[in-house]
């Protein structure tokens, strides 16, 4: 019985995590991962930049 509840809890957690990813396209992208805009949570010191094909989190070149 305990195994059933643990398995059920694990399935619910994993299902919820996948639902979150679909809604925000991967939550927090890191270096080299796609992002939607500068408002995405790129790591500190990185911005969502385009090199002509899509946007990716890359090191901020500064002003």
From TrEMBL:
GO biological process: monoatomic ion transmembrane transport
Source organism per UniProt: Mesobuthus eupeus
Official protein name in the record: Potassium channel blocker pMeKTx30-3
Signal peptide: 1-19
Keywords: Ion channel, Ion transport, Signal, Transport
Domain of life, per lineage: Eukaryota
């Amino acid at each position: 019985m305990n195994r059933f509840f643990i398995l059920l809890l694990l399935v619910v957690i994993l299902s919820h995590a996948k639902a979150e990813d679909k809604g925000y396209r991967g939550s927090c992208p890191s270096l080299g991962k796609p992002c939607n805009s500068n408002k995405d949570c790129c790591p500190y010191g990185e911005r969502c930049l385009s090199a002509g094909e899509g946007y990716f989190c890359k090191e901020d070149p500064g002003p």
